[in-house]
Amino acid sequence: MRKGLGRLTKRNTGLGRTTAQRGALTALLLCAVQPLAADVRFAPIDVPNHVYDGGWEHFVGGGLAVLDCNGDKRPDLVAAGGSNRSLLLKNTSDGAISFEPIEDPAFNLTGTTGAYPLDIDNDGHLDLVVLRVGPDAVLRGRGDCSFEPMPFHFDARWSTAFSATWEAGQTAPTLAFGHYVDRSDPDGPFEACDINHLWRPDGATYAVTDLGPGFCALSILFTDWSRTGRADLRVSNDRHYYIRDGEEQLWAMEDTPRLYTEEDGWVRHMLWGMGIATRDLDRDGRDEVYLSSMGDQRLMKQVGDGPGFQDVPFDMGSAAHRPYVGGDGRPSTGWHIAFGDVNNDGLDDAFIAKGNVQQMPGSAMEDPNNLLIGQADGSFVEAGDAAGVASMHRGRGAALVDFNGDGLLDLAVVNRRARLEVWQNVTEITGNWLSVSVIQEGTNTQAVGAWIEVDDGKTVQAREITVGGGHAGGVAGPQHFGLGDAEAVRLRVRWPHQSWNDWRDVQVNAPILIAQ
Question: pTM for this structure?
Answer without folding.
Answer: 0.92
